[in-house]
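stage 2 :: seqdesign
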């Protein structure tokens, strides 16, 4: 019923294959909204188990799932929500080689990073650049969130290493730094929204744009991010972000 999506958009979602890496706070709304929206195939990746401390920010899982692998819990949640979605659930610790094999063997249209692991993000950046596959990255720590989309098919699109030449896990982890639980829901929902727009070919994507969110002020800001020469990953130097206005 949405003219911006229509039947053509829904058919594109049905034909799409999305790889979701991480099934925690960000991954919970991503998986739920993509499944409910009729994305045809989901490959879900996480090597962790559900813990009681996860539940305040990871509604994909319940207290009955404590001790299960997150991929098994997610598989059961998706089956209950939309049994027609084809789900490939993999309990693995992903690295460059694993991502490379997946992107070469599977017809993956989009990757969504829902981790708080720097090594995984840099691995995704390298492999997606090589394979030409777009990916959406978001983060939520403390009371701040951010989201962007990287599109290797666009020669002007910066890569993750342009934006963050060096980033460590202690700068990413909400488990170490704490997080206001609805914030990860907000940022994960934004990832799902961006994914649906991208897959359906609707609206304006976040390519070359970083959105940041201050949860305490309920303030969104939009930053233009640019690719520059000599980055070790894609041929540009340390990327820059200039404020493009408020949303």
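stage 2 :: out
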């Amino acid at each position: 019923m949405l003219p911006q999506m229509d039947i053509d958009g829904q058919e594109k979602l049905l034909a799409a294959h999305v790889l979701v890496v991480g099934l925690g706070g960000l991954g919970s709304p991503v998986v739920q909204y993509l499944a409910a929206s009729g994305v045809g195939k989901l490959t879900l990746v996480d090597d962790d188990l559900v813990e009681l401390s996860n539940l305040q920010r990871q509604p994909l899982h319940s207290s009955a799932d404590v001790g299960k692998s997150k991929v098994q819990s997610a598989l059961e949640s998706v089956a209950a929500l939309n049994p027609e979605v084809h789900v490939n659930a993999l309990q693995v610790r992903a690295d460059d080689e694993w991502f490379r094999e997946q992107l070469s063997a599977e017809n993956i249209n989009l990757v969504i990073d829902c981790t708080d692991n720097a090594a995984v993000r840099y691995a995704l950046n390298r492999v997606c650049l090589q394979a030409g596959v777009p990916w959406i990255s978001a983060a939520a720590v403390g009371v701040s969130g951010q989201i962007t989309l990287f599109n290797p098919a666009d020669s002007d699109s910066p890569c993750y290493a342009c934006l963050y030449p060096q980033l460590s896990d202690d700068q990413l982890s909400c488990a170490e730094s704490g997080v206001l639980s609805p914030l990860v829901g907000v940022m994960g929902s934004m990832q799902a929204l961006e994914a649906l727009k991208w897959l359906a070919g609707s609206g304006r994507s976040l390519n070359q744009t970083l959105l940041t969110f201050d949860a305490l002020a309920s303030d969104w800001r939009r930053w233009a991010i640019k690719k520059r020469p000599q980055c070790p990953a894609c041929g540009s130097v340390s990327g820059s972000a200039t404020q493009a206005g408020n949303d």
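stage 3 :: structure notes
- The beta strands are 17-21, 41-45, 86-90, 110-113, 135-141, 144-150, 209-214, 219-226, 240-246.
- The CA atoms of residues 132 and 152 lie 5 Å apart.
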